[in-house]
Design a protein that fits this description.
- Pfam families: ABC2_membrane, ABC2_membrane_7, ABC_tran.
- Keywords: ATP-binding, Membrane, Nucleotide-binding, Transmembrane, Transmembrane helix, Transport.
- It is a multi-pass membrane protein.
- This protein has 694 residues and is an alpha/beta fold.
- It has two domains: 242 residues, P-loop containing nucleotide triphosphate hydrolases (Rossmann fold); 279 residues, no CATH class.
- Helices cover 55% and strands 10% of the residues.
- It has 25 helices and twelve strands.
- A six-stranded mixed beta sheet has the order 8-9-10-5-11-12, sandwiched between helices.
- Helix 5 packs antiparallel against helix 16 and helix 20 runs parallel beside helix 25.
- The longest helix is centred in the last third of the chain and has 42 residues.
- The radius of gyration is 31 Å and the shape is elongated.
- The structure holds adenosine-5'-triphosphate.
- Adenosine-5'-triphosphate binds next to strand 3 and helix 3.
Length: 694
């Protein structure tokens, strides 16, 4: 019997466990309850190392997990390849950043990973959490709760608080947490919280538990760009976002870096409380902890040059270094002392490396080192046993019952994910500087200015033809470039957060992209509508609602096709500046082939095809048709030779090489372009996501 799988833990039982969430928002009792509950299924014993094992130890803890890793190597590209398409270069030059490390972390412990900068702390945590970039290679074995566990299951099941926190700055703290809970709910086949009230209650619990209630309605903000919550509150919000899913194991990458000593202590205290109350396992890399912060940790992993220099309890660490002759001076904090001792001093690299090698070698044969090796061997012997007996790895039988369902069996509900993501995208788009009140005001002011500039010169005369064409050019460009660059400027900034969320299994790319594209539409209806309406009537373009609506329809399609093109370039490039540098020549070429500057039927066949991929052409043609099609009696001024006069609108269209009957076709092609750009953008996003993670 595989009592850890979804098959054996019924939904009612899972809900029973979930319902034990305590009022402070953390699953204080659920660890005990789940262990008791599972113990009924499979009798369990504690082994010499304090880990639970039994005759059939495939049952996982719901709220806590042990993790063991063996001979873990990690290689990174020695020279980072140029990652922006199309300049990607391949490099086989690899650098080893983790050097055959092995280790074991017990469930329900708070472990500090320490070492000097570049010692491999983040690399180790990324490798354990299954969040390694696609250009890095990890080799070795990882077992969770005595079962081999693949990277995808680990990344979907474990929480990871990143060194640099990222949020949608336009959302408030409460809105962000509601999104996370909603999203988590959407990922389960049957939501954990069945009513809106339960979801809001969960958010309330988290806000209270992490001391975020006083800033719950404050926008999170973007550091150095917009004001928002403080650094400590951001860190606590990052915790809240991760523990909302009750992960059995949480990785925190330098959560206290950049915080003052008191805030750093409150963050560390929060971790301590999570471990003590809910029995979670937390592995946390940390730089220069104060003595108070250091005291909160149970265990230490010391790294240097990608190797383990020590692993064990804090007390054992002191005597280990003492035995080796490295005595911590009474004026030194032990944490600082370890990092100093294991650091590679500039100018004395060889000597420092010899010291580190010596310490690492000594650790391997020390009592702590041997004990860790035994635990690792034990975990893997167990895992191998299970592998051969029941082909049970944690990807098939789960780290915890709920995560089983999440990662192995449940198909996320596309529409629920879509609606949850749409809410967030819509909120962000509505509050984004790209479509905010300032932008709208700017647009109105510009419309009045452009409208007045053309107001007295629009007429159906020979001279008026040039002015009407100029007005159409102004309308097309003013609805193209802001749409294009507005989106282009925001997508690369948002993408790292999206890719991080995607990598952690929060959602699929399909619902995300559909929600993103849909959320953009209202902004690209409102702005062109305001601009076009004002300009049309101030300029006094062709009278009649029919012609106005034709112009409006064409402008709306143009703005949305341009925004879709902005999405494509934003998804293709990591940096805004590279995206802009690539887009500009592309855009100018399309504009030249738009029909304003060139008679399109006079272009050489070699370049003629460009007009067919230029949305400027379709946009210009449709607007010109709206103004000139079937217009009779264009006035011919006396000073202009009669034989050079254009008498009808169709003659004007003919002069520019436009087809008077092509309006519907132009709109259809603009729509196809909109779909085409979005499809390509979605594929580009997929490619980026593949590059981002294994
Ligand atoms: N994706 C990568 N590409 C190239 N080099 C990498 C990559 N990831 C890590 N490295 C290199 O691996 C080494 C270890 O990096 P890691 O980030 O794990 O160190 P760290 O101990 O967390 O450092 P810090 O405390 O400064 O964050 C460093 O020399 C780093 O430059």
């Amino acid at each position: 019997m595989n009592s850890g799988s979804c098959d054996s833990v019924s939904r009612e039982e899972t809900h029973l466990l979930n319902d034990t969430l305590t009022s402070d928002g953390l699953s204080v009792a659920s660890a005990e309850l789940s262990t008791n509950f599972l113990a009924k299924e499979t009798p369990r014993k504690k082994d010499n190392y304090g880990s639970f094992h039994g005759p059939e130890p495939v049952v996982s803890y719901k709220d806590s997990a042990s993790i063991a890793w063996k001979d873990l190597n990690m290689f990174v590209p020695a020279k980072k390849p140029t990652s922006s398409w199309p300049f990607k270069s391949s490099s086989l030059n690899l650098k080893m950043v983790l050097n055959g490390v092995s280790g074991f972390v017990k469930p329900g412990t708070l472990t500090a990973v320490m070492g000097s900068s570049g010692s491999g702390k983040t690399s180790l945590m990324n490798a354990l959490a299954g969040r390694v970039q696609s250009d890095c290679f990890v080799d070795g074995h990882i077992a969770v709760n005595g079962r081999l566990c693949d990277a995808k299951t680990r990344s979907n099941s474990f929480g990871f608080v990143h060194q640099t926190d990222m949020f949608f700055g336009a959302l408030t703290v409460r809105e962000h947490l509601t999104f996370v809970v909603d999203n988590f709910n959407a990922r389960l086949r049957v939501g954990r919280y069945s009513t809106r009230g339960e979801i809001l209650q969960r958010v309330d619990h988290l806000l209270s538990a992490l001391g975020l209630r006083k800033c719950q309605n404050t926008r999170i903000g973007i550091p150095h760009v917009t004001t928002g919550i403080s650094g400590g509150e951001r860190k606590r919000l990052a915790f809240a976002s991760e523990i909302v899913t009750d992960p059995p194991l949480l990785f925190c990458d330098e959560p206290t870096t950049g915080l003052d000593s008191f805030t750093a202590w409150t963050v560390a205290k929060t971790m301590r409380e999570i471990v003590s109350k809910s029995g979670k396992t937390i592995i946390c890399s940390i730089h220069q902890p104060s003595s108070e912060v250091f005291d909160l940790f149970d265990h230490l992993i010391l790294l240097s040059e990608g190797s383990v220099a020590f692993m064990g309890s804090k007390q054992a660490a002191l005597s280990f270094f003492n035995d080796l002759g490295y005595r911590c001076p009474s004026t030194f904090s032990p944490a600082d002392f370890y990092v100093h001792t294991l650091g590679i001093a500039p100018g004395r690299e060889n000597k420092s490396r010899a010291v580190v090698r010596n310490i690492c070698n000594y650790f391997a044969i020390s009592r702590e080192g041997v004990q860790i090796d035994q635990m690792v061997e034990h975990e893997f012997a167990l895992a191998m046993n299970l592998e051969s007996s029941s082909s049970s790895s944690c990807s098939s039988s789960g780290i915890s019952s709920e995560f089983d369902c999440l990662t192995a069996r449940s198909k996320p509900n596309w529409f629920i994910q879509f609606f949850v993501l749409l809410q967030r995208s819509a909120l962000d788009a509505a509050r984004n500087p790209g479509v905010n009140r300032v932008r709208t005001f700017q647009k109105l002011a510009l419309a009045i200015l452009v409208g007045l500039a053309f107001a007295s010169s629009i007429s159906m005369t020979q001279r008026g033809i040039q002015n009407i064409t100029g007005a159409i050019f102004a309308i097309v460009t003013e609805n193209t470039f802001p749409s294009l660059f507005g989106v282009l400027g925001s997508v690369p900034l948002e993408l790292p957060l999206i890719l991080r969320e995607y990598q952690s299994g929060m959602f699929n790319l399909g619902p995300y992209y559909a929600a993103k594209a849909l959320a953009l539409i209202p902004g690209f209806i409102l702005e062109p509508f305001l601009f076009t309406t004002l300009v049309y009537f101030i300029m006094g373009l062709r009278p009649g609602w029919y012609y106005f609506l034709q112009v409006l329809g064409a402008v709306l399609m143009t703005a949305n096709a341009a925004s879709a093109c902005g999405c494509l370039f934003g998804m293709m490039f990591e940096s805004v500046s590279v995206a802009i540098a690539t887009l500009l020549p592309f855009d100018v070429t399309l504009m030249i082939f738009g029909g304003f500057f060139l008679r399109l039927d006079s272009v050489s066949p070699f370049l003629n095809w460009i007009q067919y991929i230029s949305w400027f052409r379709y946009s210009t043609e449709s607007l010109m048709i709206s103004q000139y099609r079937n217009f009779e009696n264009i006035t011919c001024e006396p000073e202009i030779p009669q034989d050079r006069c254009l008498r009808t609108g169709n003659e004007v269209l003919n002069m520019y090489g436009f087809d008077p009957e092509a309006y519907d076709c132009d709109i259809l092609i603009l729509f196809i372009m909109y779909c085409f750009f979005h499809t390509c953008a979605y594929l580009a996003l997929h490619r980026r996501a593949r590059h981002f993670a294994n």
